[in-house]
Design brief:
Blueprint lengths: L1 H32 L11 E2 L12 E4 L2 E5 L15 E5 L3 E4 L5 H10 L22 H15 L3 E2 L3 H9 L56 E8 L17 E8 L15 E6 L7 E2 L3 E3 L4
Parallel strand pairs: 7-10
Antiparallel strand pairs: 1-2, 2-5, 3-4, 5-11, 6-11, 7-8, 8-9
């Protein structure tokens, strides 16, 4: 009888131990999911010289591979973020490490004697350029191409989201749950990294880079793309080329701005078609560069 009781006691103790180990493992998985994924290798960067002297924007080479665009997190999605599309990058390209800054853009407007955009007294230098229309951004890429002898352009919507995801397939590049301070600061939550709890765009690169080495993909300012506006992804080109049919008087805008709530920002976010002449203080752009000549 005593032997039977002893056996039952050991079995119960063993079962509790298994349960506790399972809880510990689950807790570890949840904690690890909240951390940003580490880069497997340092990002390859490049920076072209300008004919006028100095250099163009710092660029990161985006590797080839397969990815997705659209709301992949399984949650409720706006209709314009559907359907989820698998895309494939077969040719590497480079994307500006950050949004184009006033420092970058002022070289352009001063060289061609064009009025420089207003910074709203927030500063120039490393601040993201704002108050630029889609046409302005297009003119900058053409000037940059002539200055460097390379092929620059705005990214397509598919290129932007493929690069922003950094090889991941989740709502954010670090996972499906928002983590304060990795790539965005929700000022209502608090605990923002130093210098990011601003009520205006801040200097670029203050947050952590995604696995491809890109900064500010869901923060600072929203960004122009090449694509004409269409309400859904259903005819997005899976080779990452731009979609140039639909309402081309309006273009797709990607990314989040500094004042967006954490519940609103995510990588599949598309701002409903923005007129190509529109200029505002929460909208800028970044550029891509062909690397076929490298």
């Amino acid at each position: 009888m005593q032997t039977s009781i002893r056996i039952i006691f050991y079995l119960a103790f063993f079962s509790v131990g298994i349960i506790l180990l399972g809880l510990t493992a689950c807790s570890k998985t949840d904690n690890e999911a909240s951390k940003a994924p580490s880069q497997t290798k340092p990002a390859q960067t490049l920076q072209d010289a300008l004919k006028i002297g100095g250099t163009g924007p710092s660029m990161v080479v985006i590797p080839v591979g397969e990815g997705v665009i659209g709301n992949y997190s399984g949650g409720k999605a706006d209709i314009n973020e559907l359907p989820v599309m698998t895309v494939k990058s077969e040719v590497p390209f480079a994307m500006s490490t950050t949004e184009i800054t006033f420092e970058d853009y002022d070289k352009f407007c001063q060289t061609i004697s064009r009025p420089c955009p207003d910074d709203k007294a927030w500063g120039r230098g490393k601040q993201p350029v704002i108050n630029v229309s889609w046409r302005d951004a297009q003119m900058y890429t053409k000037w940059l191409s002539k200055q460097t002898g390379q092929e620059y352009s705005l990214p397509s919507e598919a290129q932007w989201e493929y690069a922003a995801r950094g090889g991941t397939r989740t709502r954010f590049w670090w996972g499906n749950e928002y983590v304060q301070g990795l790539d965005h600061c929700d000022k209502d939550i608090g605990g923002c990294p130093e210098g990011t709890a601003l009520f205006n765009p801040g200097p670029v690169g203050n947050f952590q880079p995604n696995p491809f080495g890109l900064y500010d993909m869901t923060s600072n300012v929203a960004e122009w793309t090449l694509d004409c506006w269409n309400e859904q992804h259903d005819k997005v080109k899976t080779d990452l080329s731009p979609r140039l049919t639909g309402n081309c008087q309006a273009r797709v805008v990607k990314g989040g701005a500094h004042y967006y709530k954490s519940t609103y920002i995510h990588l599949s976010l598309r701002t409903e078609g923005v007129d190509i002449s529109y200029k505002v203080s929460d909208l800028g752009f970044r550029v891509i560069r062909s690397i076929k000549n490298q």
